[in-house]
Amino acid sequence: MLCDRGIFDGSAYVSSELWTQILDEQGLDGGGVIDKRYDAVVHMITAADGAEKFYDFSNEARYENIEEARARDLRLREAYLGHHRYFVIGN
Questions:
Q1: How far apart are CA 35 and CA 51, in angstroms?
Q2: Is 8:23 a contact under the CB 8 Å cutoff?
């Protein structure tokens, strides 16, 4: 099964403190959950980082400017760094 989003994507949208609190309240540990839940993680870098002309602002759901999208993308990459099969696809 392929998933467009993973459980740890949420960490890119809240503070580190809040994310830790969320994990604690759910009884989850960081790296262990990722390895058990996903056989592999493939991160495709945002178009805002290297393919800016394709970063389409006509999408109503897109609220981040290019700089914000790059920063969010970096936080998403960092969320899964410990996975044993982690792949990053550049532009």
A1: 30
A2: no
Across the strands, what pairs with 41? 86
Task: Encode the chain (91 residues) as per-residue pLDDT tens digits.
Answer: 888 888 899 999 999 999 999 999 988 876 678 888 899 999 999 999 999 998 888 878 788 999 999 999 999 999 998 899 999 999 8
Strand partners, 43: 88
**DSSP-derived secondary structure letter, 7:** G
User: Which residues make Cβ contacts (< 8 Å) with residue 61, sequence separation at least 6?
Assistant: none
Structural Rg of the chain based on CA atoms: 14
For residue 37, give every residue at least 6 positions away whose Cβ sits within 8 Å of its Cβ, in sequence order, or none: 6, 7
